[in-house]
Amino acid sequence: MLLITSTYIQLSLSDPDDEACLTNLKESLQDPTNSLKNWTKTTFANPCNGFTSYLQGATCNNGRIYKLSLPNLSLRGSISPYLSNCTNLQSLDLSSNSLTGSIPSDLQLLLNLAVLNLSSNRLSGPIPPQLALCAYLNVIDLHSNLLNGQIPQQFGGLARLSAFDVSIEELVYRKELYGEIEPYSSGHLKVSDLHTIYWEQSGNPTGHPVVFLHGGPGGGTSPSNRRFFDPEFYRIILFDQRGAGKSTPHACLEHNTTWDLIDDIEKLREHLGIPEWQVFGGSWGSTLALAYSQSHPDKVTGIVLRGIFLLRKKELDWFYEGGAAAIYPDAWEPFRDLIPEDERICFISAYSKRLNSEDLETQYTAARAWTKWEMMTAHLRPNEENIKRGDDDKFSLAFARIENHYFINKGFLPSESFLLDNVEKIRHIKTTIVQGRYDVCCPMMSAWDLHKVWPEAELKVVADAGHSANEPGIAAELVAANEKLKNTLKPTGA
């Protein structure tokens, strides 16, 4: 009889670590609805019997607490650091309460933790980087709190992490451009009998892929384009579209349409062995990003857009038929004066005639005027370095000829509302739209029209910026948008 009694007592007593964990957690909480009425010292002394739990919201495994689920109980107070004593804990859910204070760094001691849900509380302060020591974490949900700081870089090492949500306004994301980096690989891909496109990769070879779609069309890429992305997290892919940059043949208009470019993007993705990727595009790049994503939504993990251009008649008329001239008359007049008065009924058509002239010097003269007009209006404050690009005959010829070719052909889109009409195909994709309030090249009306049919996409209006991605306010929001998308993606090297 004595032997049987002693054995029963041994099975009934709780683990002292669990008892300390539960006692301190209860003391740190306020329970106005009395939801934890059976959370008493007596129960803490014996919370489990094998796989049976005597506590509200607790689940046991072999005599130890391995799950605490206390969501939506109107709990107040703070999260006790002594939760770390529940060393067998695999799942912790305190979501949808009114908890305040910080997330204890002591939770790093929960080495078996796989699910952490602290969402919809009023927690503040930074996210403890020490949580990265919980190597089994599969889900981290911290959204709708008052957290600040940055996402810990250490989280990139959480190889099992499949869901990470900290999508809250209060979180402060990095906004500084990353440092200059060099490609780790590059090459040329033959995409048709005529065209070959230049591509390059930089950043993390095992990171999350992101493809950069340049503007123009015809603008090409530059080394500075790599700096919008965290090189430790992202595998950064840049390529020059048909006829632009280092792609060949230079400034070629033959077999050069939006749909050809979409096919090229897919060929490049397959060539690089990438199952899916994030898409980043500004100005014409936003047009192409929308068209590509709507054609291949299953290949897109997230989208960042800047300076929205939907290729509608009212947008082209604004910039090329005299609207923007009201703001930049000094830049407009040289562009206007190249065209005789009797041809000024449509400047895009008049320039098309000259950009496709059999006389190369006529092409260059028109290309310089076309390019300088755009470069002089692309920044809120004049950027002399950017304006000088109009004097580069090779750059300006591709830029002007290809742009004009697309504009004459209305972007090769079936209708001018095509991109707005097909938003439903990409509504589910996490997207940020960055728009300069005083963008003269791509006025805010287009970003606003897109946001109205796609309210799920976050619209970030930069109050003191124009069109260029290199303006400080625009660049800051683009970096932040990429940082934010990192939190919804698999971590680096996963």
From TrEMBL:
The keyword Signal applies. Residues 209-471 form the AB hydrolase-1 domain. InterPro entries: AB_hydrolase_1 (IPR000073), AB_hydrolase_fold (IPR029058), Leu-rich_rpt (IPR001611), LRR_dom_sf (IPR032675), LRR_N_plant-typ (IPR013210), Peptidase_S33 (IPR002410), Pro_iminopeptidase (IPR005944). It is an enzyme of class 3 (hydrolase). Gene3D superfamilies: alpha/beta hydrolase, Ribonuclease Inhibitor. Its EC number is 3.4.11.5. Keywords: Aminopeptidase, Cytoplasm, Hydrolase, Leucine-rich repeat, Membrane, Protease, Repeat, Signal. The keyword Signal applies. It catalyses: Release of N-terminal proline from a peptide. It is found in: Cytoplasm; Membrane. Residues 16-49 form the Leucine-rich repeat-containing N-terminal plant-type domain. PROSITE patterns: LRR. This is Proline iminopeptidase.
